[in-house]
Design a protein that fits this description.
The complex is a heterodimer. Chain A is mostly helical. Chain A is 72% helix and 0% strand. In chain B, strand 1 and strand 2 form a beta hairpin. Classes of the chains: A mainly alpha, B alpha+beta. Chains A and B meet through helix 2, helix 8, helix 9, helix 12 and helix 13 of A and helix 1, helix 3, helix 4, helix 9 and helix 12 of B.
């Protein structure tokens, strides 16, 4: 314990670079030791990585295959359709960002409408029309691959799971026991098993339980699995958001004479969904990472393409370069998304009431 | 809502909330049942039957990992091998990931700027890349790129590190162990009795009568005494040896063998989950108000006492619930084993399926096993959680 008489001494001023160093790196002796050891560790690791990256790595495996990583087996002549889809998304995102604070209701409404319309438009753009349509020939979903497939799986997965998830959340909070129990069983079962087993179900079991004339492409079946899986997690997120709506809101809604359905649609859900946005972005990031699992059921998303590239004859055995590149791509996307989610959380003021 | 009373009789039944409720549930139930029946009818139209009789048949495939298995064993036994492998990787993974996460979480809060930044970089990199990419990298780009067995890296022990995995020394039991284990039991019982006595005296007097040192001494000294009394050694250290057989083939004999697949999966899961646990630990430690530490210091607690008596009990309350879900995630993520060829429950099921063609049966076995394992983990952890909550208040 400090001697009370020490208090009489003037406090030592510790500013400047040396003061910072002393305070943050070398203050008691063991901290100095820790700093030296970690510094040695950092230098060792960074040096090894830089040496590998600049001297021994053969990056031509990535540079020659860059297009393969992005769109995989999508026909090269039709690549403009992918670029056009990307352009639509970028333009819409830019507009939404520009008008994010606009008080102008109509513009925001048009934007929401544009987003909703963009989904089928992009779908048609990517898929095309008939087999021998001169303008946009059909590109079967079976050949969608690379980063394109990763994005399609993640975006469609989260979008399709959202309405199901909201319904499930409502069901789980319902006062009708049968509905509540069935929804709870669904949510808890899905959350208790790994995604790969749900994909297994959608790949192998689903076709057996459908009438013989319905044939789903592998990509569609994977989407069904991802959606069913993601819906359970969306439901839990939405349920959390609904629980955070103050009781007074429910009571006030009842007091002004709204019935149950109107109360949910007009009062509770708008507030609940606003609470949930950051959680949904987080879930989207997780889903984006989880789409890699479709490689196990034989689809060629980004990681699957990477695996295929390491099998090319001229690049055999270049696993380090390929998987490093794939990891960096994922890292950039996920890091930006989690950064955005944190910004969003602040902007929406979630948890600040 | 309408009250039951004299005028409730006048409400037509299609507007009576009680009738509507029952009706809504009934319709919902019928819809679900109809969907299931429709699916089952499609299934049986294909001439498929649902039966588990294949489980007793000969599997006729080999499994290279886990408890003993030969191709003449049954499918049921093959599945058991997978379940045991999953549990093995999950349990070891949970223990190691907790240790790694604890250290990283504390490092993240360290006043040492460099240490805290290293922890942060590790956490951000791991959390923002998919686990499967990490596993692929670990397995294909690191472990399979290690030298061949004949040029294995020899670590002190000796342990051999090669592209076939790790071979390390391992203690094994000798026949004398029969005489020694009663001492282990005795030590355990004595330690438990001492702990109970300590608790009681603390409850009565406010301070433990017997020092914690005695519990430790009990646990060490009694087995040690037993070791000296028993003739011969109850354990022996199985040290691996690199042997060149005739024809220039290298082989390692003895020791415990961790296959390259097991090593990749275990290390991958531990590094991945460790990063998440670190964030859980950090959040828990930060949730304890600073005033708590300051108040404790003002009352003259030592730093160790502050951590043990003030910070940890309050932090654990926040840490344990998300920790449970991290443990569950680790267990579920172990199913990625199939991508790198480790024979866990999912990978074995896939092989069973390819051999027998029993899709639905195997699917229910997979789901059931994961649900059972998940439930067991949450049950154990919920008991721990409850105890923590009581201790804290």
């Amino acid at each position: 314990m400090t001697d009370p008489f020490d208090m009489e001494m003037p406090p030592r001023v510790e500013i400047g670079v040396l003061g910072w160093l002393k305070n943050n790196l070398f203050s008691p002796w063991y901290n100095a030791l820790l700093t030296v050891v970690s510094l040695a560790f950092v230098i060792f690791v960074v040096r090894a990585i830089l040496r590998w990256a600049f001297f021994s790595a053969r990056w031509e495996v990535v540079t020659t295959n860059l297009k393969v990583f992005m769109i995989g087996r999508y026909p090269a002549a039709e690549a403009w359709r992918v670029i056009a889809s990307l352009a639509i998304v970028v333009v819409l995102a830019g507009l939404s960002w520009a008008f994010r604070k606009a008080k102008d209701r109509p513009i925001r409404r048009w934007l929401v409408l544009a987003w909703i319309v963009s989904f089928p438009v992009i779908g048609i753009l990517l898929r095309g029309f008939g087999e021998d349509n001169p303008f946009m020939p059909r590109v079967s979903a079976e050949v969608w691959s690379g980063l394109l497939l990763t994005l399609v799986l993640a975006i469609v997965g989260i979008a399709a799971s959202f309405p199901i998830g909201v319904l499930m959340a409502l069901g789980r909070r319902s006062r009708l026991p049968v509905i509540k129990i069935l929804c709870t069983i669904y949510i808890e079962t899905i959350r208790g098993v790994p995604l790969i087993s749900v994909l297994f179900m959608s790949q192998l079991m689903l076709p057996l339980f459908l009438p013989p004339h319905i044939r789903l492409a592998t990509v569609m079946r994977a989407l069904v699995g991802i959606t069913l899986f993601s819906a359970a997690y969306t439901a839990e997120n939405v349920r959390g958001g609904m629980a955070a709506v103050p009781r007074g809101q429910y009571e006030a809604a009842q007091a002004v004479g709204l019935n149950k359905a109107l109360m949910m649609i007009l009062i509770v859900l708008p507030q609940a969904l606003r609470n949930v946005i950051p959680a949904i972005v987080g879930q989207f990031t997780a889903l984006f990472k989880d789409t890699t699992l479709v490689v196990i059921v034989g689809l060629l998303e980004l990681l699957g393409i990477g695996k295929a590239v390491t099998g090319q004859r001229q690049f055999i055995g270049l696993h380090q370069e390929v998987y490093f590149f794939v990891a960096v791509l994922f890292f950039i996307c996920c890091f930006l998304m989690s950064y955005g989610s944190r910004r969003l959380e602040k902007a929406l003021g979630v948890g600040e009431r | 809502m309408r009250k039951s009373g004299p005028d409730s009789g006048r409400v037509p039944f299609w507007r009576d909330i009680r009738v509507l409720r029952v009706l809504a549930q009934f319709v919902f139930l019928i819809a679900v049942v109809a969907l299931i029946l429709w699916a089952i009818s499609n299934y049986s139209q294909r001439g498929l039957i649902f039966s588990y009789s294949f489980l007793h048949k000969e599997a006729s495939f080999d499994l290279a990992e886990g408890i003993e298995f030969k191709p003449t064993d049954t499918y049921a036994r093959a599945f058991l091998v997978g379940v045991v492998n999953t549990i093995r990787v999950a349990v070891i993974g949970i223990v190691l990931a907790t240790i790694l996460g604890l250290f990283t979480g504390i490092a993240r809060l360290s006043r040492n700027w460099l240490v805290s930044k290293i922890a942060r970089v590790y956490i951000e990199i791991i959390r923002n890349t998919p686990l499967l990419v990490q596993l692929f990298f670990l397995y294909f780009a690191v472990i399979l790129k290690l030298p061949k067995l004949s040029e294995a890296v020899v670590l002190p022990g000796p342990a051999f590190l090669s592209n076939r995995g790790i071979v390390a020394p391992w203690p094994r039991l000798t026949p004398v162990f029969r005489l020694w284990w009663p001492f282990l039991l005795l030590a355990l019982v004595a330690a438990v009795v001492l702990i109970i006595i300590r608790r009681r005296t603390r409850a009565r007097l406010g301070r433990p009568g017997i020092g914690a040192v005695w519990v430790l001494a009990c646990l060490i000294l009694i087995p040690l005494a037993g070791w000296l009394i028993v003739p011969g050694n109850p354990l022996w250290l199985d040290v691996p040896e690199l042997i060149q057989k005739a024809g220039g083939v290298f082989k390692v004999e003895g020791g415990v063998i961790l296959s390259s697949e097991f090593t990749a999966l275990l290390v991958g899961l531990v590094i991945y989950t460790g990063a998440y646990i670190a964030e859980v630990v950090r959040a828990g430690l930060q949730s304890v108000a600073k005033g708590q530490t300051e108040a404790a210091r003002a009352q003259g607690f030592t730093n160790g006492q502050i951590v043990r008596l003030i910070v940890l009990p309050q932090a654990l309350r926040v840490i344990i619930p998300p920790l449970i879900s991290q443990y569950l995630n680790l267990t579920k993520n172990s199913s990625l084993a199939i991508a790198i060829g480790f024979l866990d429950l999912y990978a074995v099921s896939q092989t069973m399926l390819n051999q027998s063609g029993r899709v639905v049966e195997v699917f229910f076995m997979i789901m059931g096993s994961y649900l059972a394992i998940s439930l067991t983990i949450s049950l154990i952890m919920n008991i721990v959680n409850k105890r923590m909550q009581i201790v804290e208040r």
